Amino acid sequence: MAERFLPCRVVLAVTSLDRGYLKDNHYDTVCVIDGSQVPEELKASFASRKDIDAAFENEICCFKSDALNCRVVYAPVGKLTDFDDVRRYAEAAGRALGRAIKAGAKQPVLAVPTNRDFAETELVTVLGALAALYVPLEFREDVPEKKQRFDQIGFYHPDSNKLSAIVKEAKAFEAGRLVARDIGGGDPERMAPPRVEKYLDDGVFDSNLIFKTVISNEAILLKEYPLFAAVNRAAASVPRHQGRLIFLEYKSNSPPKKTLILVGKGVTYDTGGADIKTGGAMAGMSRDKCGAAAVAGFMKVVEQMQPQGVHVIGVLCMVRNSVGEECYVSDEIITSRAGVRVRVKNTDAEGRMAMADALCQMKERVIAENMPDVHMFTIATLTGHAVLAVGNHSIVMDNGPARAAGHGLRLQEQAEKIGDPFEISILRKEDFDFHASECYGVDILQANSLPSSKTVRGHQMPAAFMMLSTGLDKHGLRSSRPIKYSHLDIAGSAGDLPDHPTGAPILALARTHLHS
User: Fold this and answer.
1) Which CATH number fits domain 201-513: 3.20.20.70, 3.40.630.10, 3.30.470.20, 3.30.2270.10?
2) Which residues pair with 375 in a beta bridge?
């Protein structure tokens, strides 16, 4: 794996914490996060400090170990309650490395703990450490001498063979999350649609494993992706903002037994369009591309893992929802790729418009190519309602076939294990009725005129729209060709400024659909 997709050089596993080993390998700091699993060489110093400091188990501290002749950072995970989850370990690892940076560390070692209540504690700890070291793309490009927080990082665990396997998997996941953070966190110009294409062209993927095609021709977009083209209309007049549909495809060496199709919302900046965002609500809207960013990151994980018997397609719907004399407006009637006449009621409901036609095209391929065991996804920072409903978690909404297969529960279970949590919402008849046409000559309504946060069932209804506008509603359990489809709303979990993007829901999807 190229080191460019890791925040610094990662040592698979440190085999010893004795003084000579650390000195010979230039490690300068040992980080500990679990006071019940302190390395043998540090137990005496931990005991003496605990005796004199009642806050020792509750606050981050930094001190020198005479036994190891190096600094020690202790960031206690603390006492866990019935309502804590494995993310506490990722958070503690991040705090430990943040304190090590402040102390001047260049080559730290993190002691990786276990917890019998959380099967993936070690992996989540390592991922938490790597996430804390991310440096934004623009800063890496503009100030290359500061592109890494550490020269290298090592991980220590009593079982070095187990740890080597864990760190190997973590590196694959982190490569995907780094790509997602770069795209999702890039500012509106650095990651405008044409520059997302250029970023992906710059060696992100092994072209022997991931095949990429791009559609940018305005005439083709207007003819074949009319809902996307409506959102793109204003931006298309500015060359550096023109929209892109980016298709990424992976086929394993063995015949596919399973097909995954992921369509991501990539709104590089969302002004709200003609229904313009006001009152400061536009700030942070460069993060409205984190769904597409997650799709790109997931494809990077696929490239790293090279799963067998799986066919994976990712679609990045990269578009800027600009405002101006060319922008689409409410009351327009636009016929989707599926032939469904859609009346626009809110140009700030652009995410569903941007994804629908690509989703329809993928449905067409599923049928034409008779793809096996298909599961289709849309992934988007779609609604403020999702944030109100579940806070900083992702939401999964399954159609009939996906729900019958137990997908939401399985995704939630795997997500909980790896610290990328999901809540489940159920699509109801009311969500489809909401889009019923108000007048003759129109098939469905795109939205209402209110923000999703002021709309009852505001995060469920967009999933119904995408099914109605693409014809996926005709592929339910009782149809001749059932197709599993899930909509993932990551508005609450993707990460808001000033924090870095999280890379959600890459870990949960990979563990659910790629893990053997």
Assistant:
1) 3.40.630.10
2) 260, 484
Helix segments in 423-515, DSSP class H:
429-433, 461-470, 506-513
303 phi and psi, to 5 degrees? Answer: -60, -40
Tokens 């298309």 identify what position?
A: 236
CA–CA distance, 153 with 12 (Å, rounded to integer): 9
CATH topology classification for 3-185: Leucine Aminopeptidase, subunit E; domain 1 (3.40.220)
Catalytic residues: 277, 352
pLDDT at 86: 98
**Is the fold of 3-185 the same as that of 201-513?**
no
| Burial call 257-269: b when 16+ CB within 10 Å, e when fewer | ebbbbbbbbbbbb
Q: What share of the chain in percent tops pLDDT 90?
A: 91
Is residue 415 within 8 Å of residue 511, measured between CB atoms? yes
Tell whether the torsion through CA atoms of 30, 35, 39 and 45 is positive or negative. positive
Matching residue, tokens 């609500």: 281
Q: Read off the pLDDT of residues 439-453 as tens digits, 9 standing for 90 and up.
A: 999 999 999 999 899
Three-state SS for 129-168 is HHHHCCCCHHHHHHCHHHCCCCCEEEEECCCHHHHHHHHH
Which pLDDT score is estimated for 149?
Answer: 92
**b (16+ CB within 10 A) / e for 55-79:** ebbeeeebeebebbebbbbbbbbbe
Domain ranges, ordered by start, for the chain:
3-185, 201-513
User: Could you tell me the strand order of the sheet in which 341-343 lies?
Assistant: 333-335, 341-343, 444-445
**Residues 6 or more apart in contact with residue 364 via CB below 8 angstroms:** none
Residues 227, 354 contacting (CB under 8 angstroms): yes
